Amino acid sequence: MTSTAPRPIIRGTKTVEEKRQYDYSKGVLPYIPEEVDDFETEATRYLNGEWPTEEQFIMYRLVRGVYGQRQPDVQMMRIKIPGGALTPGHLEAFGDVVSQYAPLKKGHITTRENLQVHFVKLADTPHVMRILGDAGLITREACGNTVRNVAGDPLSGVKLEEPFYVAPYLAAYARYFVRHEYTQALPRKWKTSFSSGGDDDVVADIHDLAFLPKLRDREDGGEPEKGFEIRIGGGTSIMPRIAWTLFDFVPVTEYLKAAEAAIRVFHRTDELRKNRMRARIKFYVDRIGIDAFREEVEEEMKQDWAQADFDPTPWMELPPEMIDEPPALVPVEAHDDPEFLAWRESNAHPQQQDGYYAVYVALPLGDIYAHQFPVLADIGRKYAGGIRATTEQNILYRWVPEGYLFDVWAALKATGLAEDGANSITDVVACPGTDSCKMGITSSMGVADALRSSIRSHGVDDPAIKSLHVKVSGCPNGCSRHHIANIGFHGAATKGDGNQVPAYEVFLAGNYGNQDPVRFGHRVKAKVPAKRVPAFMDGILSHYQSNREDGESFNDFVDRVGTAPFEELAGQFREVGALNKENLDTYIDWGKTILYKLERGEGECAV
Question: Pairing state of beta strands 190-194 and 147-152?
């Protein structure tokens, strides 16, 4: 099962005592210039052919947040945004990076609240790190077999259902485990989330480790005790699993110790290192059972290391991005612009605090262009009290006075970001796919863009349609979280007239983000050619609207009728036809100009 043999520790780790001395006033995670100097030296050595092996350098740079792309000689850089919390200065710094070092002049928000920039030359990556570091952002351990970015509910602190404000504890967890000796070379990546209560948009149940805040009554009748329910082993991709409950309640004074114990068990689990494709913690818990795993964790917490003080207070100082500064309320003026009213209805939601709104900015496919960053930063300074990146690949402004809603909309409209329907069916979520990812099979961004247009053409006046979530992944790994979408797609390939054709497999009736349990969608036994996915989507929606019972939700409808009607519908699009001039487009993926050919490289996630 497990072994006590030591594991490789990557240079640059810090002891707990050293980390207590960091200055946390500039950002959640401290920027250490010497680390970037070291990376620049080693990257130069690599470019000069001085590293022993390619694989060793890949492992080294991944821990620094630098990930190889599908295209040779360029990198994707991932920036950790713990809890998705941002400042206007962060947005401006990222905009500077995009302007100077991203050939496509755009950045990307991921479904785990990271920021990404693509097509960066390796020699330029240290410059990017310095620009971001000066603003309080780092790339450290955003990739690789590490504790990845810690995702958080963007509404934490402004929703009634939250038992207590989790941001300080999220920050403490992120700080405690970054540069930790046991998190530099895990069997595989380790994804963590902090929920806040009510609708769980961060989706605790698909994370390796998840914290849900709880209050427990004290026997002496004093103030309720703060703590967390801890879940473990969730995940999508190969063998999707809903997380198991590791502990029903762990006091806040002990949650870091419990987390470290679980990570230590994971770190020394030999069998997982033999097959990196099946090395996530979910595989281990699934095999031995949650009770046996809990016993290992409890035994680990009896060891000498666990007798230390795990009070999170030294790491709980809130940085600027987690300190809300609400603007004063201003008079509300009436506006009758139809576009504004539609945007307000779908994108602006009252907070629990009277007069203030949480405002979502729908970012098409999660992309932000260089000229839009200064505008988004300016809106944050003038009209909001906080900014968050969300797991739906959007931006959220917190604490916007109702009297400023029109001003926010007008500023967004001027820069092309005033689309209504944030977090609804038209707000399609997609991973980069073959645009940049080595593991991509299809152009998920291309088909997602086409779906955004076709769904609007179908019409979204029906509330039951408007509330659906659509997600597209370029491969089965599920970076878009398509397994839990109401309608999800992942890339595949099918055969045509002597050539390959880009296609998609389909999942229906997944669920997340509300009071109902998280669940994975039903797999439809069919492959739909990529260019016919928008027409297939129209068929799905029409079939539901024409055959549902009164008040029947989409998921309930699919549960009732099963997948057979949708497989029959998919059959209408299955035959690709001959490869000729009239039908050439079917053999070309979205956004491409050459015949499709499955070219899937070795991804670096499992290095």
Answer: parallel
